[in-house]
Amino acid sequence: MNHHFGIKSILLIVCCLSAVSGFAADTISGKVLNQTTQQPAVGDDVVLLRMGEGMQEEARVRTDAQGAFSVNLAHPEAQYVLRVLHQGVNYDHTLTGVSTVRLEVFDAAPAIKGLQGVLGIAQVESDGAMLKVTEMYSIANGSVPPVTQTSPHNFPISLPVEATLDSFTAKRAQGVWVNLVPAPVVGKQGSFTVDYPLRPGDTFFKFSYHLPRAGATTLHLKPAYPVQSFAVMHPPSMAFKSVRPRAFTSPGVVKGLQVEQAVGGVGREVPAFEISGIGSATPQTSLAKALPPSAALGTADGNSSKPPSNAQSDIDQRNLDQRKKNVWAVGLLTVLAIGGGFALWLRQKRIGARPPGGKNMPVVQALKDELFQLERERLRGTMSEEQYSSTRDALNLSLQRAMTREKA
Prior knowledge:
Distance between the termini: 13 Å
Number of domains: 3
Strand order of the largest sheet: 15-14-18-11-10-20-23-22
Largest sheet: 8 strands, mixed
Number of strands: 24
């Protein structure tokens, strides 16, 4: 790779490639593999959807004994999605100009042991009369062999008393946000369930609600699955107090919001906390401007790094370095979550864990692939300009760093 190849040049090529919408042929053929059994998926419906004002079904065929299929495109210049229906679950694949595709599906299971949340975030704000809460979770399905959990109770949620649910969305790691309508649980006020399938890999859930509150409010959040890491974000003008001493630590302010990170894994119940005061989230800004001063300066307390007057041990220095890394990690993670790039951190985390042919995917190439996919999603109009800008900035920053490390 030419390390002098500029970021702007890469983005220009990506945009040009993304703008190509015509297909090389008017027929798409391929095979569907059942990744659970490692056998061809026989008898599955393959639906050709044309994108425009929504999705319009244009053709439907079934896979043969080898899992093969073939469909004709009535409008080769249009954008298409191939959807495979396997055991009641949809698996979508966006066509990118190729005439041959390989699609993957997974067997369905009513329950999977060991499902857990990698990350949970709650953002709170208040106008003095109403408290608004937005909860976001990343649920990891690492089942072996890989299966999809499909159940009417895939993602249960429990809202505080007097809370009103405003919105609920979900997405796959490589997909787009989908609006969903949770089903109320009979006899349980504030309880809902969502049947969005938990396919292998990461699935993201985000829901918002509000409740009338003029004073201090104690929140007892209950994630649908055990969560490894959890953080509460609130405007600095609002006061945060942990009900249990030392249950949270405060890394600092990120993108105008104070971060309160739960100490250790939170399991199925976030430590209770009290929130009061008035404040709203700040407008979207670029990643470079959003990073906390402590992360930019490379210290945990925001002060410039200076050698101590007294010589410290190597252990002390290592502890200090780890604190710096922790602040950077929390800062970047929170920026991405607020800026609409909630999936980006986990995408990058798993870049080296996808072994094509038994080898790890190069980081630079993986980030370029993500930029390509981002431009495609923007052209399809599946994300807002704010979401596009914040995710693009984060990807560009990561790409620059990866290229610098590779060059070194």
